[in-house]
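Subject: complex prediction, re-run

Hi both,

The earlier run crashed halfway through, so I resubmitted it with identical inputs.
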Amino acid sequence: MAVIFERTKGLTPVSTHYCPGCTHGIIHRLVAEAMEELGVLDQAIGVAPVGCSVLAYKYFNCDMHEAAHGRAPAVATGIKRVWPDKFVFAYQGDGDLASIGTAEIVHAAHRSENISVVFVNNAIYGMTGGQMAPTTLVGQRTTTSPLGRDPKQAGFPLRISEMLATIPGATFIERVSVDTPANVRKAKRVIKRAFEIQLEGKGFALVEVLSTCPTNWGIEPTLALKWLRENMIPYYPLGNFRDATKEEVSDGQ
Amino acid sequence: MAKVLMKGNEAIGEAAILAGCRFFFGYPITPQSELLEYMSLHLPKAGGTFLQAESEVAAINMVYGAAGCGARVMTGSSSPGIALKQEGISYIAGAELPCVIVNMMRGGPGLGSIQPAQSDYNQSTRGGGDGDYKLLVYAPASIQEMVDYVQISFDKADQYRNPVLIAGDGVLGQMMEPVEFSSQKATDLPAKDWATTGTDGKRAPNVINSLYLDAEELEKHNIHLSEKYAKMKENEQRWESVGIEGAELVIVAYGTTARIARSAMDNLNKQGRKIGLLRPITLWPYPEKAFEELDDATKHLLVVEMSMGQMIDDVRIVNEGKRKIDFVGRSGGVIPSTSLVEEKILEILERSE
Amino acid sequence: MVSERTILAGFGGQGVMLMGQLLTQAGMIEGKEVSWLPSYGPEMRGGTANCGVIVQAEPISSPVVEGNATSEIMMNLPSLLKFEEDLEPGGKLLINSSLISEKASREDVEAYYIPSSDIANELGDTRVSNMVMLGAFIEVTGIVEPESIFQALEEKLGLARAHLMDVNKEAFSLGAACVKEQRK
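This time it finished cleanly. Structure:
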């Protein structure tokens, strides 16, 4: 009988702790499949963040480090400098990367560390119970913006990909979404491309993945995907923001 | 090998390279920047990697990453920078990774001064970051001793899978003394089979981690750590004692301050006094055993520090009320003078006569 | 017992730190115990510099030279005003009289007045005024041999700047001659 679907070797055979309908599971699988397909799983060292994906070190079937909140790019830097020929990736959420870890991500991009970062943006702090993130949309209600995010008080949502794309060292920056099967397939291709950039030794690559949080958004999973499509994508447009491998002349020249 | 005249900060860098350190992540801060500068020039020549991080926080987390890979790795800073590193130090201790951290102490609190101080004693010996953990803390008193303890620090870090702190001060970082690089390397260190190297498809994944969501599991981990610390306490106490036999008063001081105290002691002993010196070399574990050597003749202990008095708490704990304890010190970056120590000793002795 | 605890002070660019290091290195070359402790405060950026050097036969306990200096080299007036009190009675005080018109205020010290900046200018290189002072200092104290100073300087200059040895040696001997003259 023909095999049409197989569990990826890139994930350990355990059930995850993620809430029903959470898209972390999909993104984990995309990352794991990409590593498996590129043949780097047994040479991979990953870095897990603090946030909902704090236990990612239990799910990715490769050597892993658990980092302090926001520091994954610094930890990945330490790892990559020791093992320049291994495959090193960081998996971070939006509280981790876009709030407490802005310095680390900006400077990892700035140095063009030859690492891959998967940035999962669901516009909220999930693990700690649904607080406002830098990426929370205007008007969006969270436990720390109970009346909806007020930009006068909390600023406008931070567009990380657009910001990082301005950094000369950022080789590859692209935003994808996992709200539809088509977008999931596209996300997989982009993640794989980002990983290839590291294997080619071309420097820093980051893929921002728009994701949902049905539990803390307080809506059911299918509606959450619809909410992402209707609210997040207009503010966080999908697409490539930087691909220095295609630019003939690099910035500053 | 012939002696060379070197600045303390630079000598530490050279000693680290000779001890097999191949990774250094740091951030500029007076009075330790020469260590950073030395590493930036000399570590690449030795095939190593130097990286000037965006912050102290990033630097220590790079150390965490590199140490988890099994590398010999070092960072250095001075007091407020070490305060910033406490997050990473706690993670490194929790994940049981070996690394060496250098603190060239300066006056605090806050931004403080850039002049020498010893007011990070508590930060060094009480954990500093969150949780039940300890660092092995060495407080050398000369550049030669600092160099010798760099090798020892890397070896002990590997032996115990624990971060080691070298607690110097602005004087030790900035001064020049002749130094010889001839340290003995440990030969029987355990294999780093826990390191992340990529599985190569030959073993289950290694995970570098300090997270234990199950309370019972974390407690088990803490019990394991404290058993390790108990071993360190048993085996790693180091100190130097001079002239404590029959001494009427014994000075307790470490690092630069111990040298000033030694001058004061020599001056007074020339005048017929019997003063001794007990110099802790390990600040943690505190050299409790050293106090067992003290004589019944010794009725007074004088603690001298470049702070408002921090180590004195450990002296009180060890002393258990047996002897009278006095304190003299300067802080904020002021170095206590030899005459200040002499005057204090005479005052104590005259008071009791 | 040979022993000197020396404070060297002046403003940035006078080669005060280097002078201290040469003395320290020379002591080490002769197998003596030595230490060099610089000031490294923000005043360094503001232009003043000082260091304390100890050269002696016995192991050095405190490397701090403060209140117990046996000798001093003062290259400018603020330094003299700041450090004169740190000299022990009978101590040797070397003053750069090109820049300091004042005399020593203490009578219990042995003062020497060396126009080191003028002598250096006459040699066509202001930078060697520190070597003039060092020559005078070694003549006064005899703490190390001139040869050891030259060896230390040679190591410091390296091959690239070896051509500067001659003018430095000349400066050194003019400083020494100046002391001999004052002793007459």
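The first strand of chain B starts at residue 4 and ends at 7.

- K.
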